[in-house]
Structure formats: structure tokens, C-alpha cells
Amino acid sequence: MDKPTRANRITIRTVAEDAGVSVAAVSKVLRNAYGVSDALRENVMRSIEKLGYRPSTAARGMRGRTFSVGVLLIDMENPFLPKLVGGFKRKMAAAGYNTLIGVGEARTHVESALIESMIDMRMDGLLLIAPRLAGKALDQFARQIPVTVVGHHEPDAVAFDTANVDDEKGGQLATAALVQKGYRDIAMIRPTTERRPGDVWHKREAGYRAALSGAGLSHTARILDLSERPDEMNLEINALLERRDRPEAIFCWSDIHGVPLINLARKRGMSVPGDLGLVSFDNTAPAAMPLVDLASIDQQAEHLGAIAAKQLLSRIEGRTQSHHQLVDPVFAERPSY
DNA sequence: TTAGCACATGCCAGGGAAGT
DNA sequence: ACTTCCCTGGCATGTGCTAA
Questions:
Q1: 3-state secondary structure of A69
Q2: Mean pLDDT of A36-65
Q3: Which CATH homologous superfamily contains domain A68-165+301-326?
Q4: CB of A148 closer than 8 Å to CB of A282
Q5: CATH 1.10.260.40 residue ranges in chain A?
Q6: Beta strand A222-226 pairing with A186-191
Q7: For labelling, which of A13, A54, A109, A123 has a CA lying 20 to 30 Å from the CA of A226?
């Protein structure tokens, strides 16, 4: 195959010449625009196929639209992500947009660089999933490109939109279920990452505390921190399970910790729920596996992704008022508590 | 009314010309 | 020699126009 040079590059003009029509006619076919006969459409499509023509994203960008959007993931570990991205992608594809994915590697500078390069590529919008960047930094980017954020609460943000599960309600739901089962000594596990105001576990903790308070158990509230690094995490979980003051039940902020916790407990010969009641968050695929069978709060990830797409599309269409939407969590009932 | 055409437009990179 | 300024090429799109 020839290297694409100026002389042999297939452009809209090449297609027009091949089909024997004007450049504008080809453009209309490409955009499904009004005023094209079936015969002309077929004629143009034949040439497009024959020549293997692809519209230039760069040139489209010049006119204001590239019909591509970027998704920024924090990392590739979280099993909650595929459904979310899937829901988003499907909705965007239906609207004629391509979705390209970048991974932030859980580092701020990598994340910023990715966002910048997505802006440079003249993408039409960005979906940021649980970004490490927050507040002013996000505002700065959102002034340059439409942005929707998922997995990060910032209800006062004006420049961008957010879509989240109601994490507080989720925390409340999980904790209330434990209370209802008769547990009184209920601890919450949260991650030992740096504390940022919009973090989801923050809201989940508020829900946990609200449920305890509603049951008159505020004084029993206990927060346990676990590392997110696998090697450290396992050591810390084992230490927790050996504690003499081990809680009767645990509300775990995420399956990231919930699944290893239930596994390690059973590996030690403990019965869950006999020796320890456990309700987790995210309802990811591992939690639903038969030998894990972990009760978990479902974020309705796919639905959340579709909502985020809808928000982004309307931003791209010019909406300037911000939307901050919360989705109701659903309790995925399983016998782990 | 409809189909199709011509042409201006958008923005950036690269190159030439002019200025320091 | 270097900087600044201006012009042009690159490509797809959308408006306004014409012919049937």
C-alpha cells in the first residue's frame, strides 16, 4: 500500500471526481443531509467503498465537529468500568460519535496530559471517570471542551456536568440492611487514598453514619482504612480479621475491597455471614460469582453511562447550564450478611 | 419544489517576506 | 541570525443560488 502523500490521499474531492458529482453532493451523502436522490446516494456510496475513503477528522475539527469524544479512566483495574463505558459508548455511537479511551494510571499529571491531548485532537467532548483532578483544574478544562464527570461529586460545579449514583443513599441502604439483620457492631471500610472532597466514599460514609444514627447506633460507628495496593491490602485484611475487636459486620465502600475481604475470610475458615456480615458496593461481576456471592449496592453502571452520554451530547449541542444527576442505587441481595 | 452546484468558511501549520 | 507578520494550502461543511 502506498504511503499517503498529498498526491494520492483520498479526500472528499477524490470521491466526488470518481462519482462524477460535486464535493458538496458527497458531503450531503456523508451527513445524511436533505436534498440527495437515492441514485446519487448509491453512486457516491459505491465510490466511497471502492476508494476506501474516510473523512478527515482534522478537517472536520476545523469546522467545529470531529464526532469523536474521549473517555478518561482512572485505571484499568476497577471492574465497575466496563459496564459504565459500555453504556456510554452505545449511546454516543447511536448519535454518530466515536469513543476513544485513555487511561490516567491514577496519576494527576498523566490525567492532565491525556485531557490536553484529547483537546488538541479537537474532540467534541470528554467523559471523565472518577478523575483525580477536581475543582479549579476541572473547571479550567471544562472551559475548553464539554465535560461530564462520573464517580466524583461536585454538585456546585457550573462549567461541567456530573452523573453519579446516589452514593449516600447507597451507603444508607447497605448499612440499614445490616442493622435490620440484627447486627449492632457495624464498621465501614474505606480506602486510604488521599482525601478529596468529591470522592464517592465520602458520600457513602455519610450514608453509613446516617443509617447508624437512624437506628440509635451512632456511638458504635467505626471507620477502617484499607490500602488499594493489592500486596498491602491482603496483609491489612488479614490483620483486620485477626483483631480481637473485629466488628460483627462490615459495610465495605467498594467491591475492590469487598471481594478480597470475603475471599480471605473464607480462606481462613470463617463463615460469611456466620462469623462476619458483609455488604459491599458496586455490584461488579466478581461479587456476583457463585462462590463469592457478595451482597452489594448496584450503581446501575450501564444506565449511568447512558445518562452521562446524554449530558455530554446536550453540552456539545450548546447547553451552558450545568446538570448534576443522581441515580437511585439498587440493592443486589445476596447471602453474605 | 427539488436536486445539485459554487463558494465562503473555519483554523492550524508551514513558508516567505519584512523588520529588528 | 532571529523574530514577527502575513499569506496560502489543506479538507469538510453549510448557505445561497440556479436549473429543471
A1: strand
A2: 75
A3: Response regulator (3.40.50.2300)
A4: no
A5: 12-55
A6: parallel
A7: A109
Higher per-residue confidence, A121 vs A219: A219
* CB of A255 closer than 8 Å to CB of A77: no
Nucleotide nearest to A55 (CA to C1'): C12
Q: How far is the CA of A61 from the C1' of C12 (A)?
A: 9
Kindly report the number of other CB atoms within 10 A of residue A63's CB atom. 7
Task: Give the pLDDT of residue A107.
Answer: 80
Q: Contacts of strand C, CB cut-off 7 Å?
A: A 6, 9, 11-13, 23-24, 27, 30-31, 33, 55-56, 59-60, 62-63, 65
pTM here? 0.84
CATH entry, A12-55, from 1.10.260.40, 1.20.1050.10, 2.60.40.10, 3.30.420.10: 1.10.260.40
Within 10 angstroms of residue A258's Cβ, the number of other Cβ atoms is: 28
- Residues A11-46 have pLDDT tens digits of 787 787 777 777 777 877 777 666 667 777 777 878
Cβ–Cβ under 8 Å, residues A16 and A25: yes
Is residue A63's beta carbon less than 7 angstroms from any atom in nucleic acid strand B?
yes
Q: How far is the CA of A7 from the C1' of B5 (A)?
A: 25
Which has more pLDDT, A140 or A225? A225
Q: Where in chain A is the domain with CATH 3.40.50.2300?
A: 68-165+301-326, 167-298
